[in-house]
Design a protein that fits this description.
With about 350 residues, the protein is mainly beta. It has two helices and 14 strands.
Amino acid sequence: MQRALEQETNMADVQKRFRSTLAPRIGTTAAIALLIAYSGPANAAEGALGFYLLGSKTTMAGYLPGPGIYGSLSNYGYSGDANIDYANAGVLVSGNIGAKAYLPLPTILWVTKAKIAGGNLALSATAPIGYKKVSAEALLSGPLGNQLALDFKKDNWGFGDPVFGASLGWHSSKVHYSLGTLVNVPIGQWEFGNPVSIGFHRWSIDTTGAVTYLDPSSGIELSGAAGVTFNVKNDDTDYTTGTELHFEAAAMKHLSHTASIGLHGYAYKQISGDSGSGAVLGSFKGQAFAIGPAADFTFKLGKTPLVMNVRYLHEFSVKNRLKGDAGFLNLAIPLQAGVPAKH
């Protein structure tokens, strides 16, 4: 994930051999960075990972629950890989990158009774905890036939950057709207040169608008969301991630007031390139699409409703990032008595 992998002390011997043979023809940073640039579960930004979690706002995307306090736990898992073929100054780098991630995301949501422009104001806070594992195998071949094999594996548990949000929600008989902003605060676990750091070490802000059409008589739900993510420069790496667009959608059939099934997906596009001296691979703009099944259920814990979302996503048409599969298991419960559940 972090481009400056050559800072890792356990790669010192590899770097020494590389500098004495192939380094005169291709920069150490660029060669190693190519292998690790794909090793995050979200996109081709710095660390190959953006703080906005793609696929997190699909079913009932535009619906904000009634005033009250809610607790939720989103469990996100990802597994993906990519084959790498890169040539520079007569040196060929070929190999494979693999990464896995598991992110439990506990969140508190407070939907207030205050209204702005006719919409209810809601505030949220998320404290991510995460596990990441990265593996990379590659063969560097020089123009004179000299070769160097690289093999890297590392994993890590840690606390991520907290995310704070504010949103507004509007309702009509069949249509629900929301507009929200999320801010990533860079105080989580991060280490220079560590590709499995959980934090991002950069400020980021995302604004997303969403709408949900739900016809109670037919049980048909159509939801969509569109957002943009802006990233501030990481001063320690002199790396500025480009601006990112994301679109999410879902088509669901509500079988009852307590169950729905359907399809959901997302489209991601980085519209401006990465920049700064740390962006050794250039603009490295990424894109990805994904689709998969989704199901929502509501249970009762005594008199308290518990909402569970199960989602799967398979990626395709991927550029400059890993291609893989993601899954969500989300649980939400009202923490204040008498507050209605999501459905």
